[in-house]
Amino acid sequence: MTDAIVPAREVFRNFPAPLVAAFYLLSALAILVFCYGAWLRIRKYRRGRPAHRMSHLGRRLRRAAAAIGSHSTLGRRHAGTGAAHFAIFWGFVALFIGTVIIMIDYDMIRFVNPRWQFWKGTFYLWYSITLDVLGAAFVVGLGAMMARRWWVRPAALDYSRPDRDPQSYDRAPYVADDRLFLWLLFWIGVTGFLVEALRIAADRPPFEAWSVVGWQLANLFDLTGVTALANPLHLAGWWVHALLALGFVAYIPYSKAIHMVVDMANLLFKDERAGKQLPAVPEGAGAQGYETLADFTWKELLDLDACTKCGRCHVACPARASGAPLSPRDLILELREHAEATFGGSSWLHETAVREGDGRVAGGVIKAETLWACTMCLACVEACPVGIEHVPLIVQLRRRLVGDGTLDANLQGVLEKIGRYGNSFGQSERLRGRWTQGLPFKVKDARKEPVEYLWFVGDYASYDPSLQELTRAVARVFQRLGLDFGILYDGERNSGNDVRRVGEEGLYQLLVEKNLSVLGKAQFKEIITTDPHSYNTLRFEYPEFGGTFRVRHYTELLSDLLAAGRVPVATRLTGVATYHDPCYLSRYTEVTEAPREILRALGLTLVEMGRNRANSFCCGAGGGRIWMGDTRTPGVPTASEQRIHEALEIAGVRYFVVACPKDVTMYRDAVKTSGHEGRIEVKELVELVEEAIA
Predict the structure, then answer these.
(1) CA-CA distances (angstroms) from residue 375 to 319, 326, 371, 380, 498?
(2) Structural domain range at position 600
(3) Pairwise CA distance, residues 478 & 554, whole Å
(4) 89 with 131, same domain?
(5) What is the pLDDT of residues 425-471, one digit of tens each?
(6) How far, in Å, CA of 229 to CA of 219, rounded?
């Protein structure tokens, strides 16, 4: 290959010197505008309290890189959207890197030593085909996202608010920002190809056939007679493309586009146990919870800017789906607006809303009924592709409401019962083990004799008359399998999981102290729970207070025993069953396969509902909601009723199987209230196990 035909191209083709100078002047101006906006954002984050997010930095980097590179969260709930965004992301990355390559080669290396320039020859050919292919993917992906937003119009992109009168807010600026963001990127991609094609049409260097898209567009220009005007059109098109690109650079820190920068940082500093392990109130701290933005950490302020308004949390939220006044997306956006109004770093386009109160967040900017509507199901955190931690923030705001006495009356009464009696039913501690009286054998007292398995029974399984037979079924199964197990009888207290999530941190720590005192005197190898709520706090939160134990859900134990051949299935069951993943078993503790393995081993035909495993729906009982009054929109089915409807879409379904005492209560009630008695039977998994091994 001779020097005369070395593949390469001139950056400023046929540009007079004044235009080149104008371009560099505009570039500097765009960068300055960007830097100023970025500084405003950073200044806002610096107003936040410290948050310890620098540990295990290498692991954090690998995790964030994997999430960003694979777009795994985006594609988990909607494969098509994930694929389109994947194409946009990698197309944008390729075009950005391609631009940086030109800048390094043309603006730096050629002034140092022209012989070192690399943007030519074979490198240039591969550069051309790579950027053309990925650039095309970028444009196609943007087209797909635009079609989804403006023609398909999924519920996730509906900006209407369930907690506000339509006349009290204006989301038109958000829509305008979305449109501007997408159109800017789209036309940057399209004009880039047009400029490339006009250059090729004017010069026709044969090696530019490697620019597969630009070459074909140049052929089209030849057919339409545009080639005769290729030179002046190229100059005009180059400037249109450049102004769009520079305008986008300046636009980034003031718009939705900021998420391209912020989201990477947010994923890097994400807490993998967000919601599962809540932050304790520092010893000696005054008022609990967050009163104003001054109480927020820098990570929480970063969360607010990370939101892309994608609506995944919005459609995943059971409170929103059942007509309660809560959308996780709107909560974050409302706080972002408040933070921008208070600390600066404002977007060009934002909601215009009347601010309530004097800067108070809990009960002011965010209404109390909005915060109390949350079930703490963790669906919002799991669904968010950019690492926003909604649940810990809501708990901090609830703590402030508890401190102020702004509680649901029913909830207040239950907390008083727990504080006095150690259980949510307000019954004597001595009655906690009364359910054992119906058994043909004595259940060991783990306080008095050593056991292999200490069964932490929980309030509902112990006290609720409608659930006590299920509790005895668990004991009978354990006995039938020859397990050495015992309970704490009146030594057990409410585990405190839901107490902590309603914001009563002081009562929670008191319960932990009492439970740990009893557990510390008992002799056992591991704790078994039937209540996923207790499972979560015993596993993830008690270690913070010195309670480090091996903890498992009973389905995990039974699954292991099945694998070891220690579960004698005497009668294989028949019929179609579907399994509901409890929130605290699927999203919190990530136990999804053990219950399914058991169901299959029993002989049942397992058919999944559309939403399953980490994408499961919620019964509506979590986060203390089972203790509160109903604040839903009249006429809207409850979350549990919606789940029963979903199950009944399965042809021939017989059993709706759960593995949580609260789920039994919620779904059996839902079958009645939805008018489906006789069509489907709610079963706790242990009932089916007992039937099969009897």
Answers:
(1) 7, 10, 10, 11, 10
(2) 411-693
(3) 10
(4) yes
(5) 999 999 999 999 989 999 999 999 999 999 999 999 999 999 999 99
(6) 14
